[in-house]
Amino acid sequence: MHNFVRLLKLCKPHAGMLLLGAFLASLTVLANVGLLAISGWFLAAMAAAGIAGVQMNYFTPAGVIRFLAIVRTASRYGERMITHNATFLLLSEIRVKMFATLSRLNNVDLAMSRSADLVNRLQNDVDALDKFYLNVLLPIIVALFTIPIVMAFMAAYNADVALLCFISLMVIGVLLPALLSRKLHKEAHVETQLSAELRAELADTLKGARELAVYQAQNAQLTHCDSLSQQYNAQLYSRHKAVANSNGLSTLVIQLTMLASVFMIIPLVSLGTMKNVELAMLALFVLASFETVLTLPTAFIELPLTLSAAERLFVLEDNHSKANTQQNEIDNQSALGLTLSNVSYQYAGSTRKALNDINVSVCAASKVALVGASGSGKTTLVNLLTGLWPLQSGSLKLTTDEHSFELESMTPSARFKQLTIVAQQHHIFDGTLRENLLYAAPDATDEMLIQACEQAELSSWLNNLKAGLNTRLGIAGRKLSHGQSRRIAIAQAILRRGNLVILDEPTESLDNHTKYHLLNTLETVWADKTMLTITHDPAMLSRVDKVIWLEQGKIRAVATHAELLANEADYVELITRF
Amino acid sequence: MTTKPRPNRAQQQTLRAFLKQYSQSASGLLKLSISLGTFNALLMIASCYLLANAVHQVMFEQANLQAVSPLLWPLAGLILVRALLVALSERVSNLAALKIKNVMRNTLLEKLSKLGPAYSEQKGHGATLNTLHNGVEALHQYYANYIPSVAYSALIPFVILVVIFPTDYKAGLIFLLTAPLIPFFMILVGHKAEQLNQERWQQLAVLGNYFFDRLQGLTQLKLFNATKRELNSISQISDDYRGATMGVLKVAFLSSFALEFLATISVALVAVIIGFRLFFGTLDFATGFVVLLLAPEFYLPLRQMGTHYHAKLEGISAAADMVEIINHSEADEHTGTSPLPLPLKDIKLTALSYHYPETNEGVTDINLTLPNTGLIAFVGESGSGKSTLFDCLLGFHHHANHAISINGQPLSDTALSDWHAQLAWIPQHATLFYRSVADNLRLAKPDACQDELIEAASKAGALEFINALPHGFDTLLGEQGEGLSGGQKQRIALARAFLKDAPVLLLDEPTAHLDSQTEQLINQAICEYAKNHLVLVIAHRLNTVKHADTLYVMQQGSIVESGRYKQLVNDAGLFAKLVSRGEAHA
Question: Is residue A346 exposed (0-12), middle (13-18) or buried (19+ Cβ within 10 Å)?
Fold first, then answer.
């Protein structure tokens, strides 16, 4: 309930539009109910008048019928326009809020290590919230608004019939959907899990196609996939069965209610306490009254989904309000040094420390390389340096000649003004090349962008693009090779003006020629900056001032490349790759 | 979500035909479901008659409850049966959809395994996986809802007409005259509206893509200090799209507006005309009331078909990807069936060339004679053709099979399974399936006993850590071996290969830097195996090439140097250059 109220608060800025949509939707429903009931009455009255041979004013009811038909159609059209517009307004509101919340959280809370997972979940949540108005709020308002009106009219003719009809409306609109929704949610997570299992197995089948063929396990694997697919189907069928049963029951309740009210009215007509024409009218009125709860079942089925999506969003939001307050702004124009003391880090659920008591410092304007086998802690160290992962123990300081600043105490905006980071997981945004580059430096001119591309050894690629900077990249755009996307990341880094540059495998997937030129350029561009690079590339290692060698979360050695080559056979083995 | 264009009308025709063809496997069920639904419509008509007659008798013939109860009780019975029919018909159509999806998925998987791994790699694993999983699921609504609704929109109005005409042909004429107006208007408005509707879905997809793309790149945005700016963009873009989409919707909703308008006006018209005929006594009330009750039901199936429009489009666009896979040329499949003469003694590659379609990458004119035992290493820069050569050796590039001869018999004539029986294969990133460690090993030898598993694991240096797992060999491995380190996964894959004990082991060494202890362990195990077997390795590590009996150096798809490590270093050719990059200063 609390979350529902919070969701309603989100809707507040657009309340007028939302209510107008609900009003039009109600009008559509009422016009339709009225149309059927009056048609029934009109037919009966005309027949009665015809038989009795008396005159009757048929212009008014015939006119009303035509009028209601037009009202119904027009308000339906208006309703769809307004409600969709409102949905979009709300959708934008929710997305902006969600993005704002997420952007303030640190990466551990976001569990960014499994970002595909997170994005999938968010996508489902946003989809659920997108439909909040159309599928949940609107049907509820319409039912709340129209049921009393319809019931009041019905009760004016016969209170018993109205009561019976009201009970049935509740059964159809609330009870059955609530039961169905409970059943569906009990099984929803089994369904999700089976679906994920099937997907994982299909993914393995594709990825392991060579192994399956060589080990002649293809048929066994296909059988395995088939049996998983059958299991998933069986689970889906249980849902479809529940929905089908519920639809059958709805038919039963609606029709029986109509029949029961006919049973109740016939004696009254026979006794003469009710006009005969009202029998035909009420029979149709009862049938038509169910239109008021037509969309309510969807609302009840979607409501729990929407609420749990909202809860996740609100929990993230509340997390933030508890988050620490960083306030230190530093205004520094020169190269920054870096000092790590007693830095340790352990991932949740892991038994081993990813970083174990690291003590090292990097002088301002020096060039340092970080090497180590996979799992030695290099990436963890870079993650900590971004400040997006909370420091567990020890301290990370940025140093100038006079001052030193705890990384944690700086505001994100101050921190990222000082840091330029090219991470391993680089994201190319869906948009033009220009848009991608401008993310790094919003004020850069086209000349600056092109120059950065040239410096990142992209000019021959760029010159071959027909649309130049307007070339679309990302999922819907041009496919990039790994080397190209690395170089775009470097171009973006060049555009930024950070005083400490951190690069994760910058020369990966580049050919020798390109690499040679690139390294020369970077040396010039960042001559007066501090540079910390994860690399195993001998060409790059031979150019740095100092190599920090990590092994299993600890520093194995800090020395020059030449010293390590001369004294450590393991080092030679580590950095030699074909 | 997808931004790829929806198929046009002509393509939709073909795709609908394709989907129809695949409904064969459950056509009985679909027909049953439609029959049940149509039978329900018949009972609905019957109950309208019962109700109308009961009401008529009470109103105008002074019948009391007792007099009409012979009409009302059967009506109750009909209602019960109808409720059952509604539930049954829906169940059966869903069952049909489930069955069709299953057949479709199996067909796709079989076809993909025939086409070989290169095919799905070229298309991208992600895209193929989506087709297999979400794509196939997207067919559900198409078969379960859309197909029956098409049948009902033709059958039910027809049935109503057939019943009405003998009772009162004039009322029937009203239906008959208004009915064609609906399809007519649907076609007239629908043509434009369908196009707009498609745009609408695409707009939504674009909007969704933008938002989720930015979410995915959220860390990147933080690193660029750009989250505040992006927040404005998101709100701006949402607004722009709202404007654009509403413009489209204005017209798109017109089609449903026209449909609703016609249906509602027709019902109103029928009511008014019948009212006047009743007034003038040219029609009895029971018939008039039946017509009024049936009027909305007459238009309902047509209106409902419109609500499944989205299901139809989703199904059809999902089908496009499936057609592409299933109709892919058979020419790419392997056809040889001759048994392979054993034991293996002579593997020869003669003028082997293979190039990927549309690129220059591949291998050119490879001539090799492989020994029966020993460690043979292949080195070269990325893109030099090592992986392509290994894929050819594994028999996955069917067009190159004629250039490979085994014991004098071309691979193109040989049953691939016979050749695969002689091989073991370990890729850079071994695939560990979502099963126990033991089952992962048994993939190579399904009937292996526990002792064999232990022996293989011990040879691969994996026994110690497997025993340390919570349930030893019975420990369930997570998705992609989650919870194991890279080196551990590699050793399980090695154990799997050792378990098969195949005469030839092909291995693509991981480029990732494993810790030095693990690297040494694996290296020893492989050298040991190479004493009695042939081991072919794509080498990335110095230690491996030092131990190799023969080294082949590849460049741009050709073998340019060969020999032992020392010899090649002394020759000061390409290999020496590759090595010196690491040891330049040693």
Answer: middle
